[in-house]
User: Fold this.
Amino acid sequence: MNIIILSSSNSTSGGFRQAAYLANGLQADGHNVHFVCPSGGDATALLKEMNLRHTALPATIREANKALRSLMPENQPVIVHAFHNRGVKLAAYLGTYWRLLGLPVACLAHRGVTSRPGNPLPYLLPGIRAYLVNSKACADTLPLLWRKNRCHVVNNSIPDQRIIPARPAQEVRDCLKIPAECKIVGNVCNDNPQKGAGQAIKAFALALKNLQPAKLLVVGVTPEKWLPLCEELGIAKDVALIPKTENVADYMQIMDIMLFPSMFIESQPNVIIEAMSMGLPVIAGDVGGVDELLPRQCLFDPKNIEEISSKLTLFMNDPELLKQHGKQNAAQKYKFSMAFRLKTVEEHYRRALAELRS
Assistant:
């Protein structure tokens, strides 16, 4: 198949990674894949690392039309799969235009957030033949009206290399000076306060007297931003603040539990499915589509520090509970594999191309 992956993002956000992972998998499957996104940012480096052909997305719809048309083989069917808000709008408008021209182009759109779109028009135009969303919570926000049957849930995926540590576990513990008897609580996020680093630090501080010896690893943050809070709470020596890294699995492998107190209305967070795929027990904020991933026992109100602390204490002091949920999460690994996602997405592509032929 001839496939264009269209993204309007140029940062390596979770949504962009899903687009890149998909493009990489489709290319490995033998499809003719081209990635189109704005130039600059961290995204270009990731695409180069994956050896994906990529083209800069122009700023105007007219120039975007030219750029995309130049990538379409003459008289051959093409899939355009759009990611992110502007990308979806472009696919809706240009897809409708291409249909009027009778071009053999089938547009699909990805959506992976649970905020309701401000502009319903792109979701009602015939330019998009199918919407592939990553949670039921996300699907419920789309204003598809009579086009509800065009919406399908497709889980995010995690490439195997993303969950394979680059360093031995003992080497990581030694580097962080964490003794063998010390329990480890993990949190992977960024500096945005809504992502929950502060919540994790505060809840850990409250629970620490019941967890000792224990250490909190906060991965993906700027240490100097969060160190003052740790010092204020008197737990600076009990917290390791790890800057942004591509080797998250190095740290996940030594965690006893993943704590994910994000206050964002998450749809299907990559961090949670990475942890689940590594057989790590996860407790998380009950927001968006997180309850589609984890059982009720593993959820909490992310704004309630005392509730988070109590949940953390309950799990960390019950080795059997940790083991049970770790096994349950590991058993779902295939659902989030690249192979499973490719099979599902390719089926939707073939269905869209069959519509073109009919």
